[in-house]
Amino acid sequence: MELDQFTRANAPTEGGDGFQRENKRLLDVPVDGTVMVKAGSMIGYTGDLTFTGKSSAEGGLTGFVKEAVSSEGTPIMEAEGQGHLYVADQGKKVQILDLDEGEAISVNGTDVLAFESTVDYEISTIGGLSEAAAGGLTNVYLSGPGQVAITTHGDPLVLSPPVVTDPDATVAWSTDCSPSVGTNKTIEIGQTSGESIQMEFTGSDGFVVIQPHEEGSQV
Question: What are the sequence ranges of the domains in the chain?
Answer without folding.
Answer: 16-217
